[in-house]
Every structure is written in structure tokens, then in C-alpha cells.
Amino acid sequence: YTILYCQDCNACQCYKEGCCVLHALWNTCPFGKKVRTEGPTPRAQKFYTFLGEPEKKYPGLDNWKTKNLNSPKKITVIGPNNDYIYLPLDYLDNYNNPIAEDIGLVHKHLLPTNNFTPELVVRLMNYVPRALMGGPISDYQKSLPMFAFDVRKKFPNIWKKACELDPELEKYNIKIDFRGQKAYLKTLLPGKVKYSTKPWDWDGKVLSAKAKDVMTWSSECDEEEIVTMTPSENSIVEIIDNDTVDEDKVRLVTSRK
Prior knowledge:
The protein has helices spanning 13-16, 47-57, 100-103, 118-126, 138-154, 156-165, 211-214, and strands at residues 2-6, 32-36, 76-78, 84-86, 110-112, 182-184, 191-195, 198-202, 207-210, 226-229, 236-239. The longest helix is centred in the middle third of the chain and has 17 residues, at 138-154. The chain contains seven helices and eleven strands. The strands form three sheets. The protein has a six-stranded antiparallel sheet with strand order 6-11-7-8-9-10. It starts with a strand and ends in an 18-residue tail after the last strand. The chain is an alpha+beta fold.
């Protein structure tokens, strides 16, 4: 088992979004650590006693048993005092033309908050990482539209000033194709969404679909029978129609798949 230790997880914005940089295999964090430990298997009688040990030792933990942490893939803030910005950009520390050290990147993806300036955004948007043999790494450019959207939404003043410094960045002020992205259902407009593996109709309050299309026993369902479901505040769906997205209101899931 892997145990994640954190100085103050409940004060970390990344944790509040259901993510932790320590979840990734090679990532590290200045505010925590991960430790491998041995314990009983889920079938063992002492398994639940083993699970209860952290709760006794750290009584202030926030739903640690059910917290389904993942690695972040969007810009988010790290640390109890918003100390770092998590940059979801790969290849900044490549073998050919790395800039990670130059821009102050630490712990692979963490940038001191004060270093996240309009000038840096311009540099990141124009950066062309190169592979070992010198060719450009095209995957980096593919990640820029969503990165620009993240900056525009979470740091609008920085994005605005970056566009003033480099008017070429205005080309990223376009509507993003959100299809395939995960989002919190209640931040989406009415329309078709994918819940689990099936499309459902979302009217802003409840999900509905024909029973024969979504139920496992569909052959026994009436042709016109409709099933409805009232989602929770934390219900997550996949976007399959861009018309359900209001860029100013949508809350995308921060974690990696």
C-alpha cells in the first residue's frame, strides 16, 4: 500500500479538487511525501482495523477513506498558502532545449506562484520543445489550446496581459472543443451528456433516458419507459455536446483519466 502524507491537505486547492501531485509515480511535493507500507489484504479480518489506524492517528482527516485522488491535468494551485502553480505541460525538461530550471520549475511540474507572470505565459505558449534528434515535439503544441483556456479562466488578468504582450495569442481566444472532457454535471447547460458509458438527457435538474437504452435488463423494459436520476453535487459526466458548455461556468475535472 502507498500512504500519502501531507502537511495540511485540507488547505490545498489541488486536494479540494480531488487531486494530489503525489498520486503520479515520479512526482514529488514540498508539502508531503509518499511511503510504501505492508498491510493485510482486503479479505483479511484485520483489514478494516488497518484502515482505521490513520483515522485514529490523524482525527482531522477529510473523508480520507472515500477520497478518490488522481493526478492533476489542469492548472491548479498547490500548498496551504497557494505556494505553487501546477503546470500541466510536459517536455519542459527535455534533453535538447529544456527551460524547466530557467523558469524556476521544481518538483517536475510545480512553479512558485510569483513566477507565474504574463511574460512566462507568453514564453510557454511560444516554446517549441525538441526531441533528442532535434525535431519539434508536436504533443506539446496539441496541449496549448486547453492550457490557454485554463489560464484564461483561472487567471484572466494574466492572460489578458499576455495577449497584450503578444497579440498572436489572441488566436487561442476561441471556443474550445470540450467533447471527451469530464466535467461536474451541475455546471453544464441542459443537453446530452454521457453518464457512465451511456448518453443521458440533462435538463438542469435531473438525468433521464429511455430504460431500454441504459438499463442492463433492457430487453425486459417497455419501449417508451423513461428512467430518471437526480445527480449529486459531485456527479461527473463526459461532455459529448459543446452546446452544454458555458465557458464561464463549466467546472472541468482536474484529474487525469
